[in-house]
Amino acid sequence: MKTQMSTWMRRGTPWVWLNAGAVAISILMVVGLLALLTVRGMSHFWPRDVMQADYAPPTSSGELLSTQVIGEFVESEMVLSAQIASSGIPVDEAQGFYERQLVKLGNRDLTGADFTWVLSDYVHNVEYPENVVALERREWGNFYGHLSGINENADLIAFSGDVSAIESARWNDFNERLERALDIREDIYVIENQEIGQINYAMERLRLRERRLELDQELTPEALAEIDSERAELDEEYDLLQVQLIELYETVNRDSAIFIAANGEETEVSFADIVRAYKPNQLSLLGKIGTYFLKLGEFLTAEPREANTEGGIFPAIFGTVMMVMLMSVFVTPFGVVAAVYLREYARQGIVTRAIRIAVNNLAGVPSIVYGVFGLGFFIYIIGSEVDQIFYPEALPAPTFGTPGLLWASLTLALLTVPVVIVATEEGLARIPRSVREGSLALGATKFETLWRVVLPMASPAMMTGLILAVARAAGEVAPLMLVGVVKLAPSLPLDGNYPYLHLEQKFMHLGFHIYDVGFQSPNIEAARPLVFATALLLVIVIAGLNLTAVALRNHLREKYKALDV
Predict the structure, then answer these.
(1) Does a structural domain hold residue 305?
(2) Less packed terminus of the chain by CB within 10 Å, N or C?
(3) What is the pTM of this model?
(4) Using one digit for the tens of pLDDT, what is the confidence trace for 360-373?
């Protein structure tokens, strides 16, 4: 038996099993994480049924104060009776545990809170009325209630027929007016954010041009007259757009709907404030699936609202991808050039070894240190000098002397350059010396050998370094808080205004969005599922970028496979 055990140990079988177990545990942890993010995040967009019930918890005086509750059941948990009693609700502590449920009430403008906890023992007469309407609003979150009327220019619209016919006609008219209001809101958005935005951008460029001519003492009457002429044309266009906006706002604010809330109070909601409306208790399975994908599509393509707890996160997705792409453009050539010099040209000695040690140590420096360096060097020194030389007309307002996309990308490039250098050096070291000597023997110069033979063979290693760099940079948040990221960016860094890519602008980022929604949101319960959904999306974005780089690496590996010996 001892001989068998000794043989078994010498063969390394236990280590094989340990490695297999470690791999299995790692896979289970990754799968579990993705499953948690998917279930907790993606379930948020599913349209739940809306219940209506009477809630009558006991009071300190022993009386039952009954109130009507309309909302969605979110989750439930068991709570110690002593904990409930300590909160001021007189319950039987001998019972041990009470079940309490989290209900999304909506109607924050009426109740003051979106969510509330209710004790299941005191919830009675639970029903799911078919006519309950769920509204998603631009402000104040969701609204739940019964549609009781429609106003047009403050006049109540009358419908004829029996009760069922009136409710059906009122709901159909409501949907038609809502669709009309949404179309008008799209026109308003185009005018405010695109057309007027372009005019404002052009006006600012005219102001800067005039200031530049003034500083250069070239502001002649002819040049001033030309600028004034262009400004007058822009003012005329702006006035026309303002007239259109006034008309559109008057049109969109024409109609409003009257709802009866849970407390029996009538509430008037303007169609201009409604994003989406549906009757969740009447939706079929296909209807729920359709509504689910509409909400998910809005989450991926729309702008955020309600302190980032509602709406979409498209600016954060765009900012993350744009920053990673710019970082890749900066880090790849610098990292490859540094690795080529250290491996191919530098004399191998104490200094070279010290540089390699320094590079390896840089990979372990906390990311916030890079953020401080980027703020002090890139922004305060380089950015200020750029403003003094190229943008004096904008001073004292900074152009590049303030956090922005360019400095964030450079900071992350500096953070990830050690990874690219190490990976590229490892790839260069794997290329046999005979390949270099063979190329030189055929008459190629050292540069030609490097460019046509060595670098193509090392390109898969370069891509490996880029993959590792992207994986680290995409999820970094701490340095970005100092060098460019913001809670809500007024516009995307890429638009239709010259020079189209605005490297000086601040941007949104998925990682910072997770931090902001999870820890800075005034509505924690509403923000919690968005944290999981955004985290899942960040993982998907990083995986997509990495898979693209992996596909390119595999292509290069197959392309230059014939050079490998």
Answers:
(1) no
(2) N
(3) 0.89
(4) 888 888 899 999 99
